[in-house]
Specification:
The protein is α+β, with helices and mostly antiparallel strands. Helix content is about 20%, strand content about 30%. It has a domain at about 45-160 and about 170-185: Pseudouridine synthase, CATH 3.30.2350. Strands 2, 4, 5, 8, 9, 10 and 11 form a 7-stranded mixed sheet that branches. Strands 1-3 form a two-stranded antiparallel ribbon. Strands 6-7 form a two-stranded antiparallel sheet. The longest helix is centred in the N-terminal third of the chain and has 12 residues, at about 30-40. It is globular, with a radius of gyration of 17 Å. The N and C termini lie far apart (about 45 Å).
């Protein structure tokens, strides 16, 4: 993105997505706006909504997972996150969108912004996200790969926020073609 911007113009990434995650990504064209957006992120005032395909039949009663997460730096230079009572508080809300015979499409709203939060909370619920090489299930990932999904099935579908200097902002991104193709091949649970 910085290579596409005109010379001498400011453009900075506001937040990041996990590798393999598609969807909404926010950039700031002014340093003052970047600071405002970072302040909103720190106070969880930016509402993020994701779509995720998870293994199995997501329970109707499971709307929130609020277990603390602890980040660990691995020797390889990567991060790993574990459930740990001494970790930082983390809260994720889940809502069923569509049930399939061996998986469920869920809408996910992280209420805190911890590293790999959605992925680890899904794993904790025993419904890991499709295509998650780090926290997922290998057999389920292979099944989803046969349907054409060669990455994490996690999509940042919406961002909502309100800067003091503007009207409320609501950004949406439709599912990418590869993820839509997978959903079309799944069998709906009746």
């Amino acid at each position: 993105m910085q290579q596409l911007k005109p010379p001498g113009h400011f453009l900075e990434l506001v937040h990041r997505l996990d590798q393999g995650t598609s969807g909404c990504l926010l950039f700031a064209k002014k340093i003052t706006v970047l600071r405002e957006l970072h302040a909103l992120l720190r106070t969880s005032a930016i509402e993020k909504t994701y779509l995720a395909l998870v293994k199995g039949y997501w329970p109707q009663h499971l709307h929130e997972i609020g277990v603390p997460l602890q980040k660990q730096h691995l020797h390889s230079g990567e991060w790993s996150v574990k459930i740990n009572s001494t970790g930082k508080p983390a809260l994720t809300q889940f809502q069923i969108v569509t049930r399939f015979t061996e998986s469920t499409l869920v809408k996910v709203k992280p209420k805190t912004g911890r590293t790999h939060q959605i992925r680890v909370h899904a794993q904790y619920s025993q419904h890991p996200i499709a295509g998650d090489a780090k926290y997922g299930e290998k057999a389920f990932n292979r099944t989803i790969q046969r349907l054409g999904c060669n990455r994490l099935f996690l999509h940042a579908s919406e961002l909502k926020f309100h800067l003091p200097s503007s009207e409320p902002i609501h950004v949406k991104a439709g599912l990418t073609e590869d993820l839509s193709t997978v959903l079309q091949q799944l069998i709906l649970l009746k």
